[in-house]
Amino acid sequence: MTSVDYQGASAEAIQSHYDRGNDFYALWLDPTRSYSCALWEGPDDTLQAAQERKLDHLATGARVQGAGRVLDVGCGWGGMMRRLVDRHDVSEVVGLTLANEQAAYIGTFADDRYDVRVQNWIDHAPASRDGDAPYDAIVSIGAFEHFADFGLNRGGRVEAYRRFFASCAEWLPPGGRLALQTNVKGNNVKLDRKTVKDLLFICDQIFPESELPWTSEIIEAAERRFDVVSARNDADHYARTCQEWRDNLVANEAAATELVGEARVADYVRYLRASVSGFRNRHLGLMRIVFERT
User: Fold this and answer.
1) CA nearest 92: which of 131, 136, 128?
2) Computed over its alpha carbons, how large is the radius of gyration of the chain?
3) What whole-number distance in Å separates Cα of residue 71 and Cα of residue 164?
4) Mean pLDDT in each 10-residue stretch from start to end of the chain (294 residues)?
5) Fold held by 3-293
6) Helix 253-260 and helix 235-251: axis angle, to 10°?
7) 181 with 36: CB under 8 angstroms?
8) pLDDT value of residue 1
9) Do residues 83 and 93 make contact, with C-beta atoms less than 8 angstroms apart?
10) With the CA atoms of 10, 213, 239 and 17 taken in that order, what torsion angle do they form, in degrees rounded to the nearest 10?
11) Tell me, what's the pLDDT at 13?
């Protein structure tokens, strides 16, 4: 396999998870529909406030304030796109997703400042502006986990990630920033049998064809194109986020069952419970990294 063959998770794999119905996800996500780790402050914090804080943290890291054009790779239901336009005065936001229902939802509120595309970042060819770099900043939240084909060895994963950073470097001016949030493998490799079963269940039934990176693979892949401005591992924040999601889903179990069926609800409750344990026990990590193009 050569580098040009690295496609990451297929559109079909992504859609098998994210195209379960927007109403289903609305039952247990916050109003921003952020399906990624929040940024918590204090025991009385709310899920929505923590998610908005996360969006602002990454937006500020990417230096988006007043930017002309920003790219959101893996834009989900458009929470970050909306925040960039409404709170950070970005003139135009381009969002990439492989989920048709996510794109349809964004279409319910988007105006001419929004450009959402059902497109793999690999196939993205942005038009430049008068010969300048096409984007002032790039953000990517919870998409990097899908960028390497499942089963690749370390060298193959780094090569796949390097392709992403190479594209981002082409799309940004010197000094332009990329704010990245992604799950990573944790450093606690002492797994009991139940944990192994749960993690395999998540890989097989919840996020097929996806592979978590090691943090070191991300840094290696970015070398000679980007400097690391900041990096933090917020595994505890994701444990709390997944617990909130699980509690919301259980509280709305009857409505969720009507939408997706009893078996699917049970699968999601199991996956969220296992995720809480995985992050608390450091089998999983959550990296927020800000890069600057050299």
Assistant:
1) 136
2) 18
3) 13
4) 50 58 94 97 97 98 98 97 98 96 96 96 88 94 92 93 97 98 90 88 79 96 98 98 98 97 95 95 96 97
5) Rossmann fold (3.40.50)
6) 80
7) yes
8) 34
9) no
10) 0
11) 55
The structure tokens listed for 205 are 């039934």
Quote the tokens at residue 22. Answer: 């927007």
CA distances from 205 to 108, 168, 213, 263 (A): 30, 31, 19, 12
CA-nearest of 29, 16, 20, 44 to 251 is 29
Segments in the chain forming alpha helices (H): 11-18, 22-26, 47-61, 79-88, 100-106, 154-171, 193-201, 215-222, 235-251, 253-260, 262-280
Question: Using one digit for the tens of pLDDT, what is the confidence trace for 169-188?
Answer: 999 999 999 999 999 999 87
| Cα separation, 274 vs 285, whole angstroms | 13
CA separation for the pair 91, 25 (Å, rounded): 29
Residues in the chain: 294
Burial class (CB in 10 A: 0-12, 13-18, 19+), 115: middle
Tokens for 172, please give them. 């940004």
275 with 183: CB under 8 angstroms?
A: no
Residue pointed to by tokens 């990624």: 36
Tokens of 135: 């984007």
Q: What is the pLDDT of residue 188?
A: 79
Identity of the amino acid at 272:
L
How far, rounded to the nearest angstrom, does the alpha carbon of residue 197 sit from its chain's CA centroid? 24
Q: What is the tens place of the pLDDT at every residue in 40-53?
A: 999 999 999 999 99
CA 172 vs CA 3, 71, 134, 167: distances in Å: 22, 10, 7, 9
Residue 114 CB burial class (10 angstroms; 0-12, 13-18, ≥19): buried
Residue 20 is predicted with a pLDDT of: 66
